Amino acid sequence: MADVATARRSRLTPEREAELYEAVLELLREVGYDALTMDAVAARTRSSKATLYRQWGGKAELVVKALRHNKRIRVEDIDTGSLRGDLYTLMTQDDDCTMQASADLMRGIAMAIHNNRDLRETFRAQLVEPEMKEFQKVVDRAVQRGEVRADCPALEFTLHMMIGGFATRTLLDDQPPTQAFLTSYIDAVILPALGVTTH
């Protein structure tokens, strides 16, 4: 199935594919997932709807691929030699302006993920699960280096803590996370919970 999907998408140049993904993200910010249609994407990108369906199969896959393409740094590319460095790199990969746009985008799609089974399953299969596996490697390396005890009770909640930093900043403070906030959060909350000294 993956080979078939790759073969479908291989007909587009990387530049054209990036252009399509950016248009999808623009529409998501403008109208949200539910109101976004393949007709609107086709019109915005001067494509045929048949081409879009042939390349991506449907709206859910197209949107998730666009979100994935929008990520500047992939978890699997991060290995700074320390847990603190890895977390800093992961959580501050975007500048404050880009984080604002990302927060707006995720806020707009969050309810759709909750209500739309097709989108939820695609989002989990293509974004959440692969990144969870890669993030676990970051944590495992920290244990292997001796930075974190293997029996540390907070280990299994590391990803939850990280996501919480993003989500609660917007929810409680009504503003997106900033690089300054996230680095302080890593040093004050995540690393101490894992028993890692921050001096």
Structure notes:
The chain has 199 residues and is an all-alpha fold. The protein folds into 2 domains: 2-68, Tetracycline Repressor, domain 2 (Orthogonal Bundle), CATH 1.10.357.10; 73-193, Orthogonal Bundle (Tetracycline Repressor, domain 2), CATH 1.10.357. Helix content is 73%, strand content 0%. It contains 10 helices and no strands. It has helices at residues 2-9, 14-35, 38-45, 49-56, 59-69, 83-91, 96-115, 117-144, 158-173, 179-193. α5 (59-69) runs parallel beside α8 and α7 packs across α8 (117-144). The longest helix is centred in the middle third of the chain and has 28 residues, at 117-144. The protein is elongated, with a radius of gyration of 19 Å. The termini are far apart. Residues 1-9 have low confidence and may be disordered.
